[in-house]
Amino acid sequence: MPVPDAPEPLIFERSRPGRRALRLPEIDVPEPSRPEDDLPSGWLRARPPALPEVGEPEVVRHFTRLSRRNFAVDTGMYPLGSCTMKYNPKINDTLAGLDGFAGLHPSAPDALAQGALALLWELEQDLCRLTGMDAFSLQPAAGAHGELVGMLIASAYHRARGDSARRRVVVPDAAHGTNPASAAMAGFEVVEVGTDARGGIDLEQVRAHADGRLAALMLTNPNTLGLFEGEVREVAQVVHQAGGLLYYDGANLNAIVGRARPADMGFDVCHLNLHKTFSTPHGMGGPGAGPVGVTRRLSPYLPGPLVRRRDVPAVAGPRYAWDDPGPESIGRVRALHGNFGVLVRAYAYIRANGGSGLREVSGHAVLAANYLAALLRPWLPASHDRICMHEVVTDGRALAPHGLRALDLCKALLDRGFHAPTMYFPLIVPEALMFEPTETEPREAIEALAAAVGEIVALAERDPEAVRQAPTQTPVGRVDEASAARRPVLRWYPSEGDRAPEG
Ligand SMILES: Cc1ncc(COP(=O)(O)O)c(C=O)c1O
Questions:
Q1: Which residue has its alpha carbon closest to ligand 1 atom 13?
Q2: 142 in ligand 1 pocket by Cβ < 6 Å?
Q3: Three-state DSSP class for 455?
Q4: Is the CB–ligand 1 distance for residue 288 below 6 Å?
Q5: Whether residue 249 has its Cβ less than 6 Å from ligand 1
Q6: Can you give the CATH number for the domain in which 410 is found?
Q7: What is the Å distance from ligand 1's center to 54 Cα?
Q8: In three state form, how does the secondary structure of 144-166 look?
């Protein structure tokens, strides 16, 4: 658990003129040209950048101290539902750091990058096998980016068929906010449908929108309530009969990986968050990866370039090459070839576990979530009384009689060494708290988390103010969140005189 200590000054505040971590030798060869000679004068700085001047020990200590204030999967349990903060095996980092991968230039000729290209090709094949899709693009940099790509593919598909009236995308009210945002960014009109009493998409409302305007329906399965969409085949039938496409938001694949495949459920296009199911690190906005998979009829629209494999009789083994996609492709969606280091990590995870290992992953993830749900039930009942999948959404109104909210419980959990669960999502559950223990948490950790929740609820009954004051054991306590959001201080200025006028 982080221990409160003295505030850590910014590295800029530690700066003293003349201090250095490294002294470069004087250049002893003639300089061919100075950058100043080649750049337009308007691009040149009037004065050198105000970089911090510090010695090596100060740099190392500063960043080591900051790293110890972080909460991470490597330091404690991180039950952040919907985000799948699963353990990132260290072997993944070792492999991604191999010289042949980490030192490879993205523009290296294909002949010099055969190993990297083979890895990308095999990863695509693995993702096809795991989802039932026919082709994948590894380019998108995150789940939300994958959704946008999927929606652009849907748009291109309908346009190519001359079906320009299809401008509607149906999204359930439980969906992640990125779903409607991605559909809107791709130029679609978003139509929301509700959730039924069992926590699934309301099939009757889907039927009501199944007409010639329907371009696609976006569905997460299990959905964001952590519940399996048992009527997914019926949804697929309704959408397909109306001429629409079914989009799979694969953020929750961790619950079903190795057991069920989106294509078999009727999905036409999907994205996968490699930083969730396939254990690559969450960068909180990047670097992630959100590969997009499609069934055969949509493959001409995938973004490029794509890796192709050819068998060349003259050389032993296959050869790999980057290939431009065909004329119907939506084009390039990212510079170079995606987040390559992330793709290496996902490949390592898939190969290390194999098919049966991944099946075990989803089994343990679901078991852990249901065990936690059962332990939490006395204080935090699940939003729906059903077997959950890899995460459980609870109703946090138990604290309301003491004038406390779900947020207060989360803050108090930080004092007990746990990262908070996801709060207030999905929006349709009052005081929602969404817990996702993941497959790697041992039984004792799950029991300790539930015990901590019980302890906080008991404290709330005795002394609600003590819960309202939490956290008191973290480097930073309660902050003024409204001001932090509305008037964020994002830059440090050496003096007031350097501060740019607001606005
Ligand atoms: C259900 C769901 N869909 C989409 C996303 C977006 O994914 P990303 O954060 O990789 O952009 C998330 C992220 O948490 C999610 O939970």
A1: 83
A2: yes
A3: helix
A4: yes
A5: yes
A6: 3.90.1150.10
A7: 39
A8: HHHHHHHHHHHHHHHHHCCCCCC
| Total of domains in the chain | 1
Give per-residue pLDDT as tens, 182-239.
999 999 999 999 999 999 999 999 999 999 999 999 999 999 999 999 999 999 999 9
3-class state of residue 103 by DSSP: coil
Q: What atom of ligand 1 comes closest to residue 147's alpha carbon?
A: 4
- Is pTM beyond 0.85? Reply is yes
Asked whether residue 475 is assigned to any structural domain, the reply reads: yes
User: CB of 209 closer than 6 A to ligand 1?
Assistant: no
Decide: 220 in ligand 1 pocket, CB within 6 A: yes
**For residue 152, which amino acid is it?**
L
Closest atom of ligand 1 to 275 CA is 10
Calculate the alpha carbon distances from 98 to 95, 116, 216 in Å: 5, 11, 42
Which of these, 76, 182, 30, 74, lies nearest to 419 by C-alpha position?
Answer: 76
Residue 385 belongs to what domain range? 355-486
Q: Which residue has better confidence, 249 or 47?
A: 249
Q: Where are the beta strands (DSSP E) in 273-316?
A: 292-294, 306-311
257-261: list long-range contacts, CB under 8 Å, 24+ apart: 257/130, 257/358, 257/359, 257/361, 257/362, 258/130, 258/355, 258/356, 258/357, 258/358, 258/359, 258/360, 258/361, 258/362, 259/359, 259/362, 259/363, 261/130, 261/131, 261/132
- Count CB atoms within 10 A of the CB of residue 134: 14
Query: Which atom of ligand 1 is nearest to 145's Cα?
Result: 11
Residue 233 lies in a domain: no
Per-residue pLDDT tens over the stretch 148-163: 999 999 999 999 999 9
Say if 479 falls within a structural domain.
yes
Residue 315 lies in a domain: no
Q: Which residues are registered as beta bridge partners of 320?
A: 309
Q: Count of residues for the chain?
A: 503
Please choose from 84, 85, 151, 176 the residue to mutate so as to test ligand 1's pocket, defined by most ligand atoms within 8 A of CB: 176
Write the DSSP symbol of residue 201: B
